[in-house]
Amino acid sequence: MQIQATGLGKRFQRDWIFRGLTRTFRPGSATAVLGPNGAGKSTLLNTFSGQLLPTEGTLTYALAGRALAVEDVPRHLAYAAPYLELLEELTLLELLRFHTQFKPLRAGISTEKLVDIMYLGSARHRLIREFSSGMKQRLKLGLALYADAPLLLLDEPTTNLDATGVAWYQEHVQATRAGRTLLLSSNVPAEYAFCDEQLVVTDFQAERAG
Questions:
Q1: Taking a C-beta distance cutoff of 8 angstroms, is the pair 203, 195 a contact?
Q2: Which residues contact 97 (CB under 8 A, 6 or more apart)?
Q3: Per-residue b/e over 8-44, b at no fewer than 16 CB within 10 Å?
Q4: CA distances from 142 to 5, 115, 168, 172 (A)
Q5: CA distance 196 to 177
Q6: Which is nearest to 185 in space by CA: 76, 4, 13, 43?
Q7: Which of 111, 136, 153, 157 has the fewest CB atoms within 10 Å distance of its CB?
């Protein structure tokens, strides 16, 4: 998916979170969205996802060379973030079956194979609410990384992961990034070391009010 941001800005009340962002994000690119905590990285990702409307400027999307309406973006988007909730009253297998009705997995990946990829085989019949925070984060990442979606947004992807989990993330984000448009919000170098482009949110915060 190609995304074109032109003069993009987002304001809450009188405060501009970012402003004047013009950039093209092309298929196959991996962009690290950088900045200190509270700089607006998550707001920027949520704007790209279509969940938030920009205050000014435009966002246009194209898929396979054809224009894509913003309301159709969620069908082609995979998103993982610590603040996104899981259906905790379901077991792992129930959640995967439910989720994949709306967001199919990549070709060759079944729900059982994804369970094995995430090293959650022993928990397939456990309720999600019984998972540790690290298991939940690995699940969120697995659902996003292995979704059949050309746009991938990751917000602080190694939150709640131990060293083994971080190594798992690094392996699988590399294995699934080809051909996708990937934007990754972070201030942890180990999360975005593979990215070939960077966008520093504070570069677009010259005007904070008005």
A1: no
A2: 111
A3: bbbbeeeebbbbbbeeebebebbbbbbbeeebbbbbb
A4: 28, 9, 10, 8
A5: 12
A6: 43
A7: 111
Please tell me the total number of residues recorded for the chain in this structure.
Answer: 210
What region, left, alpha or beta, does residue 57 occupy, with left being phi > 0 and alpha being psi -120 to 50 degrees? left
What the block records as the tokens of 55 is: 């205050």
Query: What separation in angstroms does the CA of 68 have from each of 5, 37, 63, 175, 208?
Result: 14, 32, 6, 26, 31
Q: Describe the strand order of the beta sheet including 77-80 as a list of residue ranges.
A: 77-80, 151-155, 181-186, 30-34, 197-200
What is residue 98's DSSP assignment?
H
Residue 123 and residue 92 in contact, taking contact as beta carbons nearer than 8 Å: yes
The dotted CATH code for 2-204 is: 3.40.50.300
Alpha-carbon distance of 10 to 52, in angstroms, equals 9
Q: What is the DSSP letter of 23?
A: E
CA neighbor of 26 nearest in space, from 174, 196, 208, 146: 196
**Placement of tokens 């369970």 in the chain:** 115
The tens place of each residue's pLDDT in the chain, 210 residues long, gives 999 999 999 999 889 999 999 999 999 999 999 999 989 999 999 999 999 999 999 999 999 999 999 999 999 999 999 999 999 999 999 999 999 999 999 999 999 999 999 999 999 999 999 999 999 999 999 999 999 999 999 999 999 999 999 999 999 999 999 999 999 999 999 999 999 999 999 999 854 444
Q: What confidence score (pLDDT) does residue 206 get? A: 59
